[in-house]
Predict the structure of CDP-glycerol glycerophosphotransferase (TagB/SpsB family).
Amino acid sequence: MDLTYLLSLAAAFLFGVFVGVYRKKIKVHTRRLVGVLLYNTVRLFPRNGRIVVFGSEGGRGYRGNPKYLFLRMRRDPRIRCIWILKDRSVVERLNSEGIEAYYYHSLKGIYYQLRAKVFIHSHSFHDDFDRFFLGGAISVNTWHGVGLKKVWAANKKTFTYKVLHETNPIKKFLGMLLVRTMFGRENYVISTSERVSSYYPETFLVSEENVFSLGQARNDVFFGEFEEEEDQFPEYIKNNRVITYMPTHRYYGKLDREISEVLDLEKIDKFCEEHGYIFLIKRHMYSRGQIPETLKHVKDVSQEDLDPQLLLKYTDVLITDYSSCYTDYLLLDRPVIFYCYDLERYLEQSNEMYFDYFEVTPGPRVKDFNALLEAMTDAVEGRDEYAGERKRVLNIFYAKENQSPVTDKQVDFIYNNVLKLSPAEKSDSEVQDASIRELKREVG
């Protein structure tokens, strides 16, 4: 064997070892490179300023702030409003109701993501759509809750935060290229108050001028708006006195405890029987688990297709922990109990917060089940010492002008600043007929 042959064998062996050791990293970086190229190539695709795509809940649902903007904006025949989903069953349901909706990887779903000039969403554009098809489109992020948790670029555990604080200039440049492509570039972000607006630029990497305090459209159901959306809401909830337990996740569900370790469901069932309530459990979408089916007054509704805001509307007492649901619930001025049994662990292992937890939680803060049961007793028997605190905290999270219906002013904002159109009205029946005709034409 000559030296050249031996060196070739050695080089091939070393390359094989390198690929074997770094295979996962090579795949990740290759996928990212392809993503950057595709996203920026798509920016050249011609977009239609009269097509708007909507998405929410990671592409899994038809609810949240975008839903209520969609319901208003689809009245206008000048605009084609399309809902994009990652769940085919929801697509079929919406189509049967005369709503134009497409699966995100269907031919039409891809086409309209490529053609839309504007996309309105509640999470990030890679959660609610396929990010690679939205290069060059304008984002309106309504977000999905005014909460305590630091998210996106403000959260030390995220890729974005680490890129922002990278000291190597080359790594930081490449990282930011990925962040803008893979995780979203926001053009407009909707906030709820001056205080909330103050930390949105840090969170969403937008300028202060692109954050607008306009409230949350989904909360308009609290004020009698969109009453037609309540027709399908379960009567057993409407017609009962309700305690709802609505906790958030712990590190995307990885640190969640079993529900039986947190609640004595048998005692809660007995409590509800004695006081004439039902107890509903609505966990975060990242959380899993089951409860016994033998309980008469306790029901897990986590997997039911319930609008969370309507659930809050019909809730008499809310129990939560670090979830943003309570800031919306403050608009109803009803008792809130904070079951913060793992506060220290949560702050250390799951999420930091924008606020001091004890300064913005206007209700009893309990750390064990017995204390929770006592707080529930006080609430159902009308002992409420926190009305003044609820109002104070409400004004932190919601500006006074956002403590009433806001959908119309959000639509006006989108028309004037994004679509460059004057708002127009159209009757619901006209919209329904036009929508069905359009759907039939598209489906063929």
